[in-house]
Design goal:
Length: about 325
């Protein structure tokens, strides 16, 4: 069976290529060391953070360092190795100011990360995005983060999320994917998961994540929450915990994850690969030719494939397989 899946040629794969998004403070000095030397081959995308990781007193210096880094990339003196590049801003006013500050080097960016996106700032962000040049050679994307108290508030959550969905739909071509702020949500309830727990063990946060998926997953790729543990031993507790949470991310509709340490990147990247069974079933579903039956046994005969129920799943699996590769069973 061909690795080129029928029906997917026109699907934009960029939202799926964000994959493992590495956060780094914008104050980090990169010099001219290529990203592949610094992070290895597991880096999908990188966000220069100007928000939570930077104190207000250090913001101006962080912006200067960021501009110098982007100049190195623009001039070919720093090789990002195909990494998608983003900047995490503080708020909509900062986004507007920063775009002016980065004039001349912004072309190396894929886009911006918008923190604490909710009804208090959504319309202002939309007005900003609507003012952007739609004819520029390298169009910019945004990735809003759903993580604030307004989004989590159980008494108004459904209406808040529904209204946000409507507002975002007006700038849908600019939205690359959505992200969720797991640590910010935990902070609202004064809780923190341990290295042997997952975010899904915290019932209040799990409910918020489930509602976000229910509202947005039909239209957007949504990335999983950050895992805050790391280390050098790939078989350490931190890695086992991360693998468990990644499996639950996928099961619950999240694709990709934010990383805060380079050691997390290979684990996240490996989780993006799909099993041989899933990929073969996805290809069969997307290449369905039976005009009389809508169900059939899977490739290995262990489960039932139903074209009317499994097509959306199959599209995701096929895309991930094409981008990140196939994992043989038992590996």
């Amino acid at each position: 069976m061909s690795e080129k899946t029928a029906g997917l040629e026109q699907v934009d794969t960029l939202p799926y290529r964000v994959g493992a998004l590495m956060y780094t403070p914008a104050t980090r000095q990169f010099g001219t060391q290529p990203f592949k030397e610094r992070y290895g081959g597991a880096l999908s995308s990188l966000a220069f953070c100007l928000e939570d990781s930077i104190q207000e007193s250090a913001l101006e210096e962080a912006e200067l360092v960021l501009r110098r880094t982007l100049v190195l990339i623009r001039d070919g003196r720093l090789d990002p190795g195909g990494t998608l590049l983003f900047v995490r801003v503080r708020d909509v006013a900062h986004l507007h100011q920063l775009r002016n500050f980065l004039y001349g080097v912004e072309s190396v960016l894929t886009g911006y990360v918008l923190p604490k996106f909710d009804l208090t700032n959504a319309e202002a962000y939309v007005r900003e995005l609507e003012s952007w040049d739609t004819m520029q050679e390298n169009p910019l994307w945004v990735m809003p983060i759903l993580e604030s108290a307004a989004v989590a508030d159980v008494s108004h959550r459904a209406s808040q999320l529904s209204e946000l969905q409507g507002i975002l739909s007006t700038v849908r071509p600019r939205v690359l994917n959505l992200r969720v702020g797991g640590n910010d949500l935990c902070n609202l309830y004064g809780v923190r998961r341990g290295v042997r727990d997952t975010i899904y063990d915290i019932s209040a946060v799990r409910a918020v994540l489930g509602d976000i998926v229910s509202v947005f997953a039909g239209e957007y790729v949504i990335s999983g929450p950050v895992w805050e543990y790391f280390g050098q031993d790939p078989e350490g507790d931190w890695a086992h915990g991360l693998r468990r949470e990644l499996a639950l991310d996928r099961l619950n509709g999240f694709i990709g994850k934010t990383a805060i340490h380079p050691s997390q990147l290979p684990v996240i990247l490996e989780s993006m690969r799909v099993s041989r069974q899933d990929y073969e079933d996805a290809v069969r579903i997307l290449s369905w030719e039976d005009d009389s039956l809508g169900v059939a046994r899977s490739a290995d005969g262990s489960r039932m494939n139903e074209v009317s129920c499994h097509t959306a799943w199959a599209e995701k699996i096929a895309l991930l397989g094409q981008i990140y590769g196939i994992r043989e069973e038992g590996v």
